[in-house]
Amino acid sequence: MKNLLIKELRLASSPLSYIFLVAGLMTMLPGYPILVSAFFICFGIFHSFQFSREANDTLYSVLLPIKKSDFVKAKYMFTCAIQLIGFLICSALTAVRMTALSGAAPYANNALMNATPVFLAFVLLVFSAFNLLFVGGFFKTAYKIGMPFLSFGIAVFILIAAAEALPHIPGLEFLHSPAGEKPGVQFAALAAAAVIYCVVTLLACKKAQRRFEKIDL
Amino acid sequence: MAVLEVQGLCKRYPGFLLDNISFSLESGRIMGLIGRNGAGKTTTLKSIFNLVHPDGGKIRIFGLDMPQDEREIKQRIGYAGGAVDYYKKKKLRDISAVTGTFYSGWDDAAYHRYLDAFSLDENKTPSELSEGMRVKFSLTLALSHGAELLILDEPTSGLDPVSRAELLDTFLFLKDRGVSILFSTHITTDLEKCADDITYIAGGKLIDSKPLNAFMSENAQAGHGDSLEDIMVYYEKESLYEKLAD
């Protein structure tokens, strides 16, 4: 598995996957739907799938003395590694916004979602949708990337709309607080999203492995 | 000893059936897999390498079962679908460095020996190489991990006559060192120069599989022709004139 990950990094990944991690900095933007940052991080990973497809990475990999299922697992591990880095960037900046900058006027008067643990929970839900819909969809054919990315895009649109709408529902106004009111509830939501991310990614990986085994290359 | 045994291989696609293909390749021999375009050569080779899933039949390599012992088998064989057509913008040095980590028998000294012999520059990318040089790089990778069996899909297609002659020389050199080679082609003159055995597939069916000399003499006696090209034309030529006139 280590060899396959090195192969991903040295041969099969696009530099855009790393460059798009900068989108994590969008967490600091006031008056902007900051959940879009998670979409851009996934968009960077999408470029690696596109790049590896154009480079015939699948054929090269299955000719190596590996199990086909390990190829799928390596793609998921690479995806999760990029997502983890993106999540850490968003988390660090969320912590800054919730503490040192919680009283800053641009955030106090922010009309859109503030960076809170619930925001981070939604980041993980966006990543879950990517792993399920895009990566899982890609391994139906190991070639087509258009439809899987479109279905992921629709899911992201719904998630962003839901995230922005939640604080406007009576009783959930605390979600808009820059300092993160009701931290117990917020961190519980984050923990639940983390569990969803792990379960969805694991199940999507298993299903993708089964699908990939059946493909004639 | 047979390094490769294919028994009753079947694969069905819409509009095409690879039907009950059986043959075996002995150690240290070169076998040519011939047939016209669309005959089923590539499907046969891909089935052997578990790139497509056969609907029936059995494949044994080095006495091991494919696909059950896939990883162990792949450590000992090399496959090249002609020229390298992956990572075209990556340097050969990077491709080989990564490839080598997957093989327990990777030999760096052998790798550099083949690079020198084939005049390959590690700092170039596949996109900067000619078709012939990319075939040679493909072979270099396969040989550097000590492949005992090479499976090559139309390696001489698209090569100029000199490159083809060099490649056939390489096959003979490898054969002398005990490497077995199975390669598909429709360029019959290549086989007459280096093949020991012939397996002939037409329309998804096995026509014959035997030593080249026996195949040639039997067909000559039957009046099918004196060269592989004449024999193929005898078996497969359709009268397009009559078809077009209908």
Describe the protein's architecture and organization.
Chain A has helices at 2-12, 15-19, 36-54, 57-63, 68-98, 105-108, 117-138, 146-165, 183-214. Chain A is mainly α. Chain A has one domain (2-214). Chain A is elongated, with a radius of gyration of 18 Å. Chain B is of the alpha/beta class and 246 residues long. Chain B has a single domain, classed as Rossmann fold. A 6-stranded mixed β-sheet of chain B has the order 6-7-8-3-9-10, sandwiched between helices. Chain B has a 4-stranded antiparallel β-sheet with strand order 2-1-4-5, covered by helices on one side. In chain B, helix 4 packs antiparallel against helix 5. The longest helix of chain B is centred in the last third of the chain and has 16 residues, at 161-176. The model of chain B has no long low-confidence stretch (mean pLDDT 87). The chains are: A mainly alpha (217), B alpha/beta (246).
Which characteristics define this entry?
heterodimer; A: 217 residues; mainly alpha; 9 helices; 0% strand; B: 246 residues; alpha/beta; Rossmann fold; six-stranded mixed beta sheet; 10 helices; 39% helix; globular
